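S2.1 Query sequence (Serine/threonine-protein phosphatase CPPED1)
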Amino acid sequence: MGAPACTAPPLTSFSLLAGVKAVFSGHYHRNAGGTYRDLDMVVSSAIGCQLGEDTHGLRVVVVAADRIVHRYYSLDELGEKGLDGDLLDLLRGE
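Output structure tokens follow.
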């Protein structure tokens, strides 16, 4: 489903040289991901139809000066309790 093997390494190597720390994509109908060298590859599930075990939801990504933090929330979880405190602190710049 991803890029052919012959094109993936040059694209990810270029991203690493450019200082990219994470690549996010979505609509895969399940959560997935991995790491290539120091590059995080994060795939988020669709908000609608699920094909895996994940519930309907969305991924919240916070980019701070010194890190990238991301977390997947089910719609129920997000509606009931909202974002976790550490993400809210990062959003406030604390």
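The CA atoms of residues 63 and 69 lie 7 Å apart. The beta strands are 22-26, 32-36, 39-44, 57-63, 68-74.
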